[in-house]
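input
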Amino acid sequence: MKSAVYTKAGQVGLATIERPQIIEADDAIIRIVRTCVCGSDLWSYRNPDIESGHQNSGHEAIGIVEEIGEAITTVKPGDFVIVPFTHGCGECDACRAGYDGTCDRHIGTNWSNGVQAEYIRFHFANWALVKIPGQPSDYTEGMLKSLLTLADVMPTGYHAARVANVQKGDKVVVIGDGAVGQCAVIVAKMRGASQIILMSRHEDRRKMALESGATAVVAERGEEGIAKVREILGGGADAALECVGTEAAVDQALGVLHNGGRLGFVGVPHYNNRALGSTFAQNISVAGGSASVTTYDKKFLLKAVLDGDINPGRVFTSSYKLEDIDQAYKDMDDRKTIKSMIVMD
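output
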């Protein structure tokens, strides 16, 4: 089968590898129907020390169940499923509290990779996979795009708002205008925010956010950006949703909050010197981490997509074949597309 691999910094290619097999009783083999490139994949793509032939870090897909291990009772071969980037068990304390993104039982093994391929072996599949009614042929391409967002970026945007406890009437600032930030705007509107500011410098992303419910967009950064946000809001924000993963983004989020505000961070951190004590003088509540994909999808996000209440699939602004995976990465890295979708034959 074909699978994407990193060949060198700034380049992705295809390798022919063995089709995965059932190894454990709770494994499932999934034939990928749609997958995509995530903003977090670009960190590996840009890594100057990446080894040639390194497995892709792709982790989002929808697909068809091909085979199941003997312990699988929730799905069967032929089922159409969301393939989350997380592999919660559904039974531990973390999962029951709605934090399956950091399952207590699967520490170090809870995240997918290698999903930019024709087939994958999905570990701990019994609870984590989310069944979609019908088959791919029952849905429009636009709906398939929205279903694909439920593997990561839409639940991740939701997670930022949940852990920041966004409430009706809140003033919310979203840091990051990529797919997760765009989904965070959708979620802030879902949860009843009265004002939603996206920090963005890119016209296509500004336009999309305004169509999704943002009330204003701020291009400035640093102290100038913070001052602009506070001017628009007439003070600080109730909640800031950090969807980037850099120290500068965290600084921006903390700067726009009023004392007693709430920070939800879901950008995978690429910093190690942000001290929690730095928030003490502001009485800021800080929470974040890996999204509860299966929980959110099963409880409400899948229904919201199927009912047409939300349209997160708009974040996929370009589509590619697996053979064009290098271009899919390049266009995202060059900001020519917000999110690249890979259409499998």
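quick obs: DSSP finds eleven helices and 16 strands in the chain.
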